[in-house]
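## retry 2 of 3
previous attempt timed out at serialization; input unchanged, resubmitting
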Amino acid sequence: MAGAVLLCAPAISSATPPTPAPSQTSGPASAPSPTKNDSSKTHPHHKTVQERLVEAEKALAGNEKIARQLADQAESLRSRSLTGAVRLLLSDSQDALGKHDFQNAEDDLTSAITIQPDQSILRRYRAAVRLAAGDNNGAISDLGVVIQADPGDATAWGMLADAERERHEPDAALRAYKQMMQLDPHAPDADKQLKILQTEKDGQED
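## retry succeeded, writing output
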């Protein structure tokens, strides 16, 4: 998983500035000069969506009690920047998928990717449609792009394991699933699925 780079404001020195020497003149003290705004002070860093996503991904691996809540948070952050037009296409794709119209479901997602090619989650959605349609190679192609852009996407790694298993590649499926478990060790039935994949890999080696 890519590590998050947390930016912090520079530390402010606590040392007391030297006291100026008293004036030699006996006249009235001059009025203090107006305080100038210190434009050099740094404002608190507002984390980007990407930084918040990486933090949620990191926390997901180590917090069993709120693991699913963190997973939902990460998913929400991934789709936060989707435009209204893209969300409409996603809705249309979901409707088509519900009718087992895989081609229209995929076409809607391809249109969405054309509008926002930088949103890797759209390729994961298309990979899911391709998996449902039996296009495992197409799904793996999409998932490769997703994982390169967002290596902490545990769902993408799990889907890759499914696609490799459907291609009868148990070794690749097991590797992908182990990566998914590193990212989300508290995923439902993870241990059970791992044993199944391990058994299939061991059986192929015999």
